Amino acid sequence: MSQWIKFLSGNVPGGFFLYLLILLIIFLVLFFIYRVNELFTRKYLIRWSIVSFILLTIIYALIWFRNPPAQILKRYSVDISNENGQTDSFTDYLNGLLSSSLAPYISEREYFFSPAWFYRITPSDSGSSSRFRQQAYANLPVHKVLQGKIRRLGRNIQISCQLLSYPSAKVIKSSQAEFKPLDSSQLLKWLQLEFGGLLPFVENQDRLLISQPDSLLAEVTRSYYCRDYQLSLDQLNTAGSQQRQELEYEIIHRFLEIKLAGQQSRKEPLKNPYSTEIPLWKKDLQKSRNRLLEILRQGYQQRQIDLLIAESYLWEENFASAEVFLEKLLVENPFDIEVLLDLTFLHPSRYKEFGLDGLMDIYQRILDLCPLEEAVLLQWVEKIIEGSPGYAAPPQYAQERIRKYLKINPYSYKGWLMLGQMYAHQFQKELALQAFLKADSLSPQSGVVHYNLGALYYDLRKYDLSKEHLLRAIALDDNLDAYLYLGAILKEEGRYEEALEKFRYRVAHKQGEADYYAIQAMKGIQTCLDSLGQSP
After folding, report:
1. Which architecture, in CATH terms, is 74-213?
2. What is the pLDDT of residues 241-255, one digit of tens each?
3. Taken in order 486, 490, 492, 493, is the CA torsion positive or negative?
4. What are the phi and psi torsion angles at 179 (to 5°)?
5. Model-level pTM?
C-alpha cells in the first residue's frame, strides 16, 4: 500500500495526501454553502463537487506527468560473472561486448542499464560481487537482466545464461552452450538466437574497443569507469610498444589525456587575459582531440569518441562546438547519463534547448536513470540543503532518495555522510550522529567525516569529543572549517591565545569575500582580543 501511495505522490509537492486534503476542504466548503444557502440545492452540491474533483485531478495529473517518478521507468541489463560470482577481465570484456550489442533504449520509458554504472559507487569494488548486483537489481529495480556464468572447460568456456525478471528474480528463460574464448561472434549469434525475442539486440557499433579479450585493456577500462584517470593512464603505460601502436590503445590514451586535461583546467587559476601562453593541458587536449577527429574521418563510429570530443570543447569553453556533438549524442540516446553530466557545464540559458528546466532538473534526471550515480547525488543534496530551510518539504524528499541509495549500497560512507548532513540540517541531531558514526566506521580515515562529527559534538556541547574529531580532521585533510570550531572550543575554555591562532589561520585561508566561516573567525578574533584587553 505504501508503495502505491509513493507512486501516486510521485514528485508532486505535498504528494497524494495533499491532493486528498484539498479535495476534502473543497467538499466541506461546498457542503457548508449547501447547508446555509437554500438556493444552493443538492443538485448544485453534486455538480460542483464533480467539477471540482475533475479540475483538481487534471491539475494534479499535469504536475505528476511533468516530472513522473522513476518507478515507471523500465530497465534491462546484462551481468556476466565467473563461476565464483565475481567479475574479472574476461567477464568485463563480455559485459562490454553485450552492452554495445543491445539497443540503448526501446522507448521513452525503457532503457539499458549499463553494468559499468556499478563502478560509480563507493567503494567501487562492491560492484564486482554478484550478490551485491543482484540486490541492486531487485531494489532499483532492473526489470530484465541477462545473467550468465562463465566456467572454463579446457580450451573452451561454458556459459550458462538466464534471463531473470526483477524484483522477483523469476527465470524467464535459460540456456547453456560452449565456445572458444576468442570466438565472440559465435557467442553473440547464439545469444541473439536464444534471447533475441526477449532483449533488443542490434548490430554492434562499438566493436573497435572490444575486438578481442585483453586483460590489460580491461584493467585500464575499469579504472576509467571508476574515474581514476591517472591510475588508468599509469596502467596503460605499462603496455609494450607494439600494444601502444594498436588503435584500441591509442583511443583510450586520447580519452585519458582529455579527461586529465579537463581536471587540470578546473584547477587552474584565472588566466591573465593579456597572456598569449597556451597551458600545457590545453596543448595535450588539442592534440588528442585532433587525433580523435582524424579517426572519425577515417570512418570509425563510436559514441565515446564523440563524447570526448565534446568534452574537449567544454574544457576550452568553446560551448558552441561542444553543443553540436552533445545534441547529436542526446538525440541518439536520451538516456546517456554521461551526456547529461556534460550538459551541466553549459550556460543555464542553454538547458531549455535540450528540454531541461535547470541544473537541478538535470541532476534529477540522472538520478532517476542511475540512482547509483553517487557524485551527482552528493551535489544534488548539497544544492537542496543550500536552498531549503530545515522545516521545508524538499529535504524530506532528498532523505528518501539517500535512503534508497543506501538500501542499494549500505557500504557507502559518502551516502551515510550525506544522510547525516541532511538530519543535521533539520536539527535531528541524534539521527545525524548515528549516520556520521556509521560513516566513520566505514571510512575512519576520512577527514570530512571527522569534521562533521566534531561540528555535531560541538553543537551537543560535548567539547572533548568534538576536539578529538576536529584534530583528526585537521591532521587528515587540513580541514579549514575545523579550525573555526576548534578555536571556538578553546575560546570557551578561556585559552584565548590558542584560540586566536586557530581563528587567524582560518581567516588567512579565506575562500572569497562571502566566506561565512572566515567571517565568524574574524568575530572570534575580536572576542578573544577583547578578553585579553588587546587591540586588533
Report:
1. 3-Layer(aba) Sandwich (3.40)
2. 666 678 888 899 999
3. positive
4. -145, 165
5. 0.81
